[in-house]
Structures are given as C-alpha cells and as structure tokens.
Amino acid sequence: TDNLTTETLSLLNGESVPEDVECILIYAPSTDISEEEKDMLINFLEEGGRVLILSGTNEGDELPNLKAVAEYYGISVLEGVVVEESTDHYIFNAPVLLMPDMESSDITDSLIDDNYHVIMPVSKALDISGAVSDVTATALLQSSEESFLKAEGYNIETYDKEDGDTEGPLTLAAMVTKDIDTENQMQLVWIASSELLEDAYNQYSSDANEDFVLNALEMMCEK
Questions:
Q1: Do the beta carbons of residue 77 and residue 126 sit within 8 Å?
Q2: Please, what sign has the CA dihedral across residues 83, 111, 73, 195?
Q3: Calpha distance 190→71 (Å, rounded)
Q4: Are strands 50-54 and 23-27 parallel, antiparallel or unpaired?
C-alpha cells in the first residue's frame, strides 16, 4: 500500500511495543492474545498509539483478552451474529451479509461522498454507549433499526427474530480516540467482521471494504 511500511510484530519478544511502531493491525485472530499482550496494547494506546482490530464472529473462543482492550475504554464487544431484516441493508438474500449505514468520519467520508457501500459479512456488534468519559467514541458502520443480534453466533438455526435477541440499530465498526497531549492522540478502531477483506466480499463492495480499512490505516499512520 502507498507509503505504508508493514512487518509482522510479535509482542511476546519484548516488554513493550517498539518505539518506531505507529499502528498495530490485528487481523482476524483465531486465538486470543495473552494477558501480557493485552497490557502492552493498552499501554501502547495510553501513550498515543493506534490499534486497528478486525475481529468478528468466531466459531469458538470469544477472545476475552482482546475484548478487554476495548473494554478498558468502556466499549462492550457483543458476541453473536447480526441479522438484518431491512432488505436495503443486506445483499444476495443473505441477512448476515450486511450493507450497513456509514456514519460521517475521517475514515468514511470519502466513501460516503462517492456513494460506496461497505459489505460486512457475519458481523458481531459493539456497544459504545458506555464509553469512559475521557474518550470520544464514534460509530462508523451501523445496522438498521430492523436488525438484531443473535447470541448463538455461527450456531443460529433461524434468521427470525426471537425473544432475547438484542435489537438494532447495532454498531458494526467504531472508532475510539483520546487526546494524550497536544501532539499525541490515541486511536482504536474495531471492525466487527473478520471476513471483510476476503476477495469476494471486497469485490461485491467495489473495493469499498479495502478502502475503508486503508482509510483507517492512513489516518492512524498520518499518511
């Protein structure tokens, strides 16, 4: 990608994130991070670091340490899978292939202006209503009022709404920021789908999915 230098980072090799790291991308984790890695990520953020997480509905492990990074800022990660009943908000007659509304932000505004739509396959949800007082939490992607979250995740047996399902609208991607000092701003973005960047879904979105993630990375790396 333009102007971005990337390399694989293992946090287990040291006691903190290396100083030259501007942004950490955690993409589709299948297993949880360790307690030590969780603490390193929070310390990195608290010093003005930037972390981008793509993690959606998992088939097993619910990744409690990874979720704890968001929970540190009062953001709840809601397990399950979002089902959409508004036909304008999903594709291919598949109510879990979501086409959410985009909210205005540095990440989304260019896509909104060009009338692009991000496709969110098999997404869980985020609750940003409890964000701690010293951060700004912004919804980036939202499902419709006709959507709901089914807690069973991959094990759902019906797309029908049932008692106990969490009612929409639901936040599918969010940004959390905090000014550390006059020069440094912490940025945490969580996109609640692991499959967003798979080729098929990116093609269905006319590359909007890839642009959405690149816009986030470019904002975080100030490119």
A1: yes
A2: positive
A3: 12
A4: parallel
CB atoms under 10 Å from CB of 71, counted, come to 14
Least Cα distance to 172 among 117, 133, 113 occurs for 117
DSSP readout, 35-101? HHHHHHHHHHHHTT-EEEEE----SS---HHHHHHHHTTTPEEE-SEEE---GGGEETTEEEEE-PE
Nearest-Å Rg of the Cα atoms of the chain is 17
User: For 96-119, how does the pLDDT look when each residue is reduced to its tens digit (9 = 90+)?
Assistant: 999 999 999 999 999 999 999 999
For residues 41 and 92, give the distance between their C-alpha atoms in angstroms, rounded to a whole number.
38
pLDDT-derived band of residue 10, with 50, 70 and 90 as boundaries? low
- The strands making up 81-83's β-sheet, listed across from edge to edge, are 81-83, 148-150, 166-167
- From the list 36, 127, 33, 35, the residue with the least C-alpha distance to 73 is 127
Query: Tell me: the pLDDT tens digits for 73-100?
Result: 999 999 999 999 999 999 999 999 999 9
Q: Over the range 104-134, which residues count as b (16 or more CB within 10 Å of their CB) and which as e?
A: ebebbeebeeeebbbbbbbbbbbbbeebeee
- Among residues 58, 29, 215, 66, which one has the least CA distance to residue 140? 215
pLDDT in the model for residue 22: 85
